[in-house]
Amino acid sequence: MSTDFIETLRRRMPTGSIPFSKALLGTYILVALAAPIIAPQNPYDLLQIRGWEASAAPGTMGGDGYIYWLGTDGLGRDIVSTILYGLRISLLVSIVSTAIAAVVGVTAGVVAAYFGGWVDALVMRIVDLQLSLPTILVALIAIVTLGPGIDRIILAIIIVQWATYGRVTRAVALSEIGKSYLDAVRLLRLPKKRILLRHVMPNSIAPALTLIPIELGHAIALEATLSFLGLGVPIDKPSLGSTVAAGFQYLMTGQYWISLFPGLALLGLIAAINFVGEDTRSKLDPRSRSL
Amino acid sequence: MIKDITQKPLLELKKLTISYRSRSQTRPVLRNVDLSLHRGEILGLIGESGAGKSTVGNAIIGLLAPEFVQTSGSILFEGRALEGMDEQERDALRSRRIAAIFQDHTMSLDPLMSIGAQLTEAIRAACPDLSGKQTRGRAIELLTRVGIESPSERYHSYPHQLSGGQRQRVVIAIALSGTPDIIVADEPTSALDATIQKQILQLLRELVAETGVSIILVTHDMGVISEIADTVVVMRDGNVVEHGSTATLLDHPVEPYTRDLLAAVPRLRISSGKRTDPTFAVVNNASADDEEPAKRAAILVVSGVTKAFGRTSFGWSRKPRKPALQDISLELKPGAITGIVGESGSGKSTIGRIIAGLETACEGEIVIDGTRVDVASRRQPGGMLGRVQMIFQDPAMSLNPRLPIGDTLAESVRFGSAPSTDARLAISVIMDRLGLPMTFLTRYPHQLSGGQKQRVCIARALLAKPRIIVADEPTSALDVSVQAEIVELLGQAVSQEGISMLFISHDLALVQALCSSIYIFQNGSVVDGGSPEFIFGRSTNAYTRCLIDARPERFTI
Questions:
Q1: 20 to 30 A from A234, CA-CA: which of A99, B83, B118, B344?
Q2: What residues in B contact A186, CB-CB < 8 Å?
Q3: Where do the TM regions start and end (chain A) (predicted)?
């Protein structure tokens, strides 16, 4: 009885939360896009920041009658605006890096599987090496080597993530290459590029696609982590992660809002992406589809 | 096989209807199936793919997927309806008294358990009262019974250490562990070579005679039916077409479908060299002109080809590998069809792939049209790569699933160096000749049946304007009735397009009907070769005789 109940609960939970997650994710994206219009303040514009109103508690009324609903940070930036602008950076970084990582990884996987031999050995040993190290360590090494900046963060995330796509795609591509339609194609003297792009890749790409939504969530978390560690986006362009980090020192003195609200926003974003991602993944994955 | 018809049947299906139920639809897969099985009877259930024969078997052993629902009718075991029993009783009945043997011997044993452990597990489930020693004794007894040599040593072997035939024997031993009344055998020999198949069928027949067990034998192979079944049920599209004793049904089929099915089975002629089989009349006409090519120079000469597959990664395993091919020499005359016959592992596919240029030979040479070819020279512009096209065994895997048929064919035309304006014309001519409607051009492979896909593969091969086509078991994944059509098309293609063909098969009758010369492969060597008249009439080679003897007698003339 009880196991039945738990099983039912487990099956019900995600389905109930998916429409909600989709709505939440949609809101996040809309808000991020509309940030310059709807944000009360531009936190990048030093002229709009009032240093004298720094660390104001939520609900404090500012000098011009504007109410800081979520308070201000240590530099006097409105937390609401920081979250809105930070969201833009987080989404930009994660979407761009995930997209490029997927392209790089899929290409590497297909090429490794098709050419085999030393190409395969080389690519896959790099993949092994990378996957054997903790993600954050790889990212840290990359950032330290590359230096700071949004483009470097994107690059670091790509370096971290391509390996997963590469491994998954190579496995599928290998089994596709064993099928006779590729033998038939090889007998037609087609250019290698055409064989790879038209025959191998389209048939090997499905598992990589199902990874994308999940990796998107990872990318946001990774960017936030790097920013939190102070290695991420520069301080004048705060992302959600760096805002949380900036507020960290104020926690001791009871100014919880600087870290808490951007943190909650981040939590909601990652949760929404993961739920929606898991849903998309199971819909894309033919094995989890019923007859 | 003593069978008392007056006795009440052991198992009866009465108007059994099973439907496949999905969210959008409910579709019957079995309609009003009636059959009865007596003690000690072997009932053959035959039909082509999609006939519902496996569904009947699964319904009896209780392995239907949840989407399949019994909508009406009943299954009676000793007069009691299975639907009427409670779940526990039904499960007990199925585990003790009804056993199953499946097709794929590589999948039906746990690779991580020794066969002894798997067998004792089954015996314990059936007879929990036996002591450990008795269980082991019973396991050895069963292994001996199914003809495993030195059973007490084999007891500790793992499935991968056994041959396919031995594995299937172990599966049968496991099925026997509960001394069942009924064994449902779903294609028990389809994954085995003909010589092994013969032995396994022999074993099943002995078991029936000795223990009085009844067998429901689900198969697509008329040969298997003719060898061991007492009664036959012919199924099509979920309906029973015809039902009767094997002898009557095979000799005097009533229904046209049964007649077609029987006519489509290729027959082996060993009595004389005369070709009288009406099924392959068209093909035979084509090869009747073969007197002349015999005098012409060969289009393909393979001499001394040896192939051993590469070492394992990083040279870790230094174990010398048995070569897949040893010193193979053969030739193909222009405009002729040459057959290569062998069992699995004989290297017959490997030589086909080497000739096509998909694999490289370690030693020896291949001469096509007077020019010696190797991988490098094939790849050069104007080289031979692609002048040998292949048709593969499994049509489901031979077409890119993401390209419409038209695109797949267009690639081939382009290779055949027809100007792009003629591409449509070339495709439509070939499609028409192969009986494929032009509407297929926009379809995807999964929307086509197996036979249609194989026609597309033939079209693709022909459009590339090859000199030689290597057909590697082109019909073994297809139903018999479709097989006849495909074989006919291949014969026509050779005679009309002026190409030569290497026809690789395990089916002697097919090769006999189609080929003007035949090579017999065994363990990577050519052991026999010559004209069909020689091979089937006068050859004294022991292996050739063994292959011929493994053919079901009913389909030998």
A1: A99
A2: 358
A3: 20-39, 91-115, 195-214, 256-277
